[in-house]
Amino acid sequence: MHVSRRSLLAGTGAFVLSTGLPQSAAAAAPQRRSGLAQPPRSRFVRKDVAGLVDAVTGAWAPELYWYAKAVGWMREQRRNDPNSWRFQWYTHGKPRRERTDPPEWHQCPHGDRYFLPWHRWYLYYFERIVRNVIVTELGQKSMADWALPYWNYAHLMFGGDPAASKEWRRIPLPFRQRRIHDPQGREEEDNPLYLPVNMEGRCLGDRAMTFSEVDPAVAMREDSFWPPEEQEVERAGFSLVLEGSPHNVVHVRTGGLMGAVETAAGDPVFWLHHANIDRFWTAWLTRHQVPTGWRWPEVRPKHAPDDPDLPYLLRDENGGRHTLEGPVFTFPRNAYTYESLTDGMGAGGTPSAFLVVGMPQGAPTFAVADEVTHLGAEPVTLSPGTGRSGADTIETAVESGDRVVLTFEGVRADAAPCTTFLVFLGGDESDTDPAGPAFVGHLTFFENVGPRAAHSDGTRLSFDVTETLRELPDQAWTGEEMPVVRVVPGPLAEAAAIAEADPRFTNATFTVV
User: Fold this and answer.
1) Contacts 24+ apart (CB under 8 A), 80-85
2) For the chain, what is the domain count?
3) Which site from 40, 335, 376, 452 is most exposed, i.e. has the minimal number of CB atoms within 10 Å?
């Protein structure tokens, strides 16, 4: 048994304000609201890719087989053809930009309000293009209902034991096989879905991600799509939280092409990953609502100062150009549906800390690290020291109902590090369990990777850690000193890849608000 600040406060009958802090997984779980309809059914059903492979014969279902064939066909087309693989890849991001690039290229929004709706439209047109290639170019009239599969990496087998569902957290098997397998299980030509296990292909190989890395429960507990603009410090909301985890985490852990915005869409598994992200959003929408009044901008946010003034533009299977304009959340009905909106939606347990945005001017702030901190294959322990002012202020905040926010500034890397970094509080270095009371969240490196990244100067990540500090046992934090912050590399982190990527942050602070 351990004694935490929470149990001591409860034992003395103290009343602690904790607005916005979930008291249990049940309290944090989103509840269905009356009047919100289920998504409409469609002839185009997106299916779990795990169900499209015969475990006995090794045969691929037609949906997967013809996706591989279509990817191969698209790769053979010239890159300025909207139906080509590179045109669709570069619409998301392009490694080296040129003045003659089509206006559709390099437009993916990350870290802003258009992240989910833009990707929904992007996948919608990509899906139409692939379907048309299968039916028209490859002559498969029977595949007129083809839909993009999804990578259901948060699936749990009956009983909820993550160890039993490890296969779902690996790169889907057909993307690891060197040869195409037809619907009868026979091997054919080289597999366009396969990428080698290296920094130019994929880092993950045959290994599995941990369940904590892919669990969407932290995002699914959010009640608002986007943080209220009138609040100085507020929960980040569903979109930003989902983008951080599991979206960014899966990109980083898959690594290789998937590890940076400019190259991610070049990996055929990218599209299955984003189909699953869209599935999470679809499930969240059955219980929640999106903001009203949002409209697409006439000029999309720029990735570089010299980018031209352009709207969001996408191409369809006939080469037609579509400008995203008008209400942001208007989308065609019956465009597609998902095989399941309940499977793989989170285990329910979530850390006490949560992502926040905003910070009031003049709030008491105390340095945890005031110079650039480079991360490596070994844990980094940040000990702010024994300054009484900071320690007293933080302890008083925890006991009185104020909020304590841990912020990392300038989070960035030169290349994809192929691992995430887990943040913990307290001096107990043996506690590296993401299901334990000391866990805060992940530092991820995706949209902040490389000199041409949209956030090349680094991103800012802030976590409300008030409840985490309350729950820490006394051996981890006594309140007599500033809390220790530990940054721990994820499992199977490779020293060489991390050293080449040089993941880092410029400073870290505690702020009391």
Assistant:
1) 81/319, 82/129, 82/315, 82/316, 82/319, 83/129, 83/132, 83/133, 83/317, 83/319, 85/266
2) 2
3) 40
